[in-house]
């Protein structure tokens, strides 16, 4: 079962566009579909931009003790794709930050040249996920790399598969209760898992999570400065105009900041993270 794309795109502010484009194109095998001196659009299928990179001359490196991006997670269609990229990373000795089995998924973790966290993962069959009421079971175990590599293909890694999407986005936030209210009561995401007292996982349509929220390194922190590198905003895809109207009313009810511009909703979560919603 392929999940519909809920997180449509992420926009990152970067200091060095050339270096970032090289990484996403040459290391991860994405396609560059638009490019100027200040901006580049990054795609898996050659048509749909998953990432937009925007260079600012006055950009300063993001303080890790601010709210913002924890990681962007790229969901591949097949386990063989994950096996091929693992084999490729082994061959090229590219440094990874981790490799985990979360029961619902198998994942690799790394960072781009400006320190933005990246997860590359595949989902296990949703029929094998374990639900305890309305809470999904997720864990973190070491990835069985040897077992995974048995799925590697003879042709090997040929770049990011065309059907790759942003499966989820994980954010570090200042606190969880107002944040839960914003994403649950405001944006209409279901709370799928409360992970101890420091993380929430939220989704639509009983997915394991479209949005992760944690305070592991960020409890009580401020939002980054406007010219900070990192996440500028991310875009959530809405299925129709009825859903858009409903979310606008919900955001008004909880007094969340909101403007409408060119048919899109612009809002900001309680930790200062900017979000665009569009049909």
Structure write-up:
By secondary structure, the chain is of the alpha+beta class. It has a single domain, classed as 2,3-Dihydroxybiphenyl 1,2-Dioxygenase, domain 1, CATH 3.10.180.10. Helix content is 19%, strand content 37%. The chain is built from 5 helices and 19 strands. A 9-stranded mixed beta sheet has the order 11-6-7-8-5-12-15-14-13. An 8-stranded mixed beta sheet has the order 2-3-4-1-16-19-18-17, covered by helices on one side. The radius of gyration is 18 Å and the shape is globular. The protein starts with 6 loop residues before the first strand and ends with a strand. The model has no long low-confidence stretch (mean pLDDT 95). Keywords: Metal-binding. InterPro entries: Glyas_Bleomycin-R_OHBP_Dase, Glyas_Fos-R_dOase_dom, Glyoxalase_1_CS, VOC_core. This is VOC family protein. Residues 6-123 form the VOC domain.
Q: How many beta-strand segments?
A: 19
User: What is the top-level CATH class?
Assistant: Alpha Beta
CATH topology-level fold name: 2,3-Dihydroxybiphenyl 1,2-Dioxygenase, domain 1
User: What's the Cα radius of gyration?
Assistant: 18 Å
InterPro entries: Glyas_Bleomycin-R_OHBP_Dase (IPR029068), Glyas_Fos-R_dOase_dom (IPR004360), Glyoxalase_1_CS (IPR018146), VOC_core (IPR037523)
Protein name: VOC family protein
Pfam families: Glyoxalase
GO molecular function, one term: lactoylglutathione lyase activity
